[in-house]
Structure formats: structure tokens, C-alpha cells
């Protein structure tokens, strides 16, 4: 089975932090430059590190906040993960991704104590059509790069520039020889939201890269398909926002936001 990354080495440090050394494969290649990684699989491999750092059966990740410091270099890189704030009911952990001697991404995740709240549960986000009910959509092929070529997409026929529903899946493991959890699989595609309903064609003369990715999860997702019900909005002073309700085949499970810098090419 193809994979986005290969794990080279993992180091446990005296202070409890962990550093993992990786190498990216072609499937992780970005869309803006051939010598960078796409933020989507980069998010996935970081989430794999967050998921396995000091796991507790009574806690889960409720929020992931990723800040993108610059180009995510292709090839060799490292991810160092540490505890920022420990606790009985909440914990804050942090992963820093470095490539070519520079920080690429800093991700912080809140882990939260779980309990049975079925009696008060309620959602306002609505279910959407399942992927098998929608036609195959090849619109993402306008983007270059190995990551985009790795995904399969289906979309609502009503999808338009700035708004629409798109489902994604891929045949890749996140890391060679490692079982990919559903959580990591789906987190590794969330960043794609910024490219599924762009207000501008990528060839039209404007770039709209995101500087961050914020993911809030009111349920841990399951399955192999990620549904992105997306709205993309551009302001008048060079800043935009991509917002999505996140779905798996069981229904909505969270939301994502990406702040955009609008730049004329």
C-alpha cells in the first residue's frame, strides 16, 4: 500500500518529549511548489504524533490548532512533541515540525476528559449526502502535486465557486508499515478544504494560501471518507477565510477554519 511518509527514527528524551524523524514520499508533494509538502498530509502525520503521545483511555483530542510558519520542505523532516500543560481533566500538547533547519508548523492540541453525555447530546450541523450518492468529481485535478493526485473526490452537482460539498478519500497509509487510524486518515485531508470551492481559479492570477488550520471536534471521526461542506470568503483588504463543517459517513463531527492571505501572482 502506498504511504505519504516513511519513519526513519524515533527518540525519547529525558524531559519526556519525543522526536520522530521522517522522510516524505511523492504522495505528500504540495500544490503550490514541487519542493514542498502539502499541508493536508503534513497535518495527518503531526496528528499521528499527537495521537500516540502519552495516550489515555479517558481522554481524547478536542481541538487542534496548527500555525504554518512557511514553506513545508519536502524530504527529510522531524516532529518533536511535548507536554505543555498536564492535568487530570485537560491536557495541552504541542508538536513542532522542522525541515531544512527551520520550523514549518507548530501544532497544539487540547486533550479533554471524556464522559457519557448521550442524555444531553444535540447538534445543529445537518447531515449531508453520502459519497456513494454523489458523482465522481475530477475538479481537483487542476491542482498539481502528488498529494492531489492521491485523492479520490466526489461532489454535489450544486457545488460552485465559494460554496459546496465535496467528499475525499485516498488509498494511502500515513506512514509506511504503520496502521493508520481513522482519526489520522481524516485529519490528513482536512486542509484540502481550501482548494475544493475556490472563489478564484488557481490559474486566474491570485494565490490564496492559508496561514493556519484550526480543527474542532465534537466527535472523533470514523471511516475512510471525509466530507467537507465548505464556504470560502474573501475580504476587501487581502485577507480571506475558508470554513468547513466536517463529516464522516455517520454525520457531522466538527468544524475547521483557515485564514487566507490573498496574493496577486
Rg is: 18 Å
Which blocks of ≥5 consecutive residues have pLDDT under 50? Answer: none
The oligomeric status of these chains comes to: single chain
- The run of helices and strands is EEHEEEEHEEEHHEEEEEE
CATH superfamily name?
Acyl-CoA thioesterase, double hotdog domain
Percent strand equals: 35-45%
Structurally, the number of domains stands at: 1
Number of helices: 4
- What is the fold-level CATH name, i.e. the topology? Porin
Please estimate the helix content: 10-25%
Overall mean pLDDT: 96
Please describe the biggest sheet, giving its number of strands, its sense, and whether it closes into a barrel: 13 strands, mixed
By CATH reckoning, the class would read: Mainly Beta
Order of neighbouring strands in the sheet with most strands: 7-8-12-13-14-11-3-6-5-4-2-1-9
The N- and C-terminal alpha carbons lie at a distance of 37 Å
User: Would you identify the CATH architecture?
Assistant: Beta Barrel
**How many beta-strand elements?**
15
Structural class from helices and strands?
A: mainly beta
Can you tell me the overall shape?
A: globular
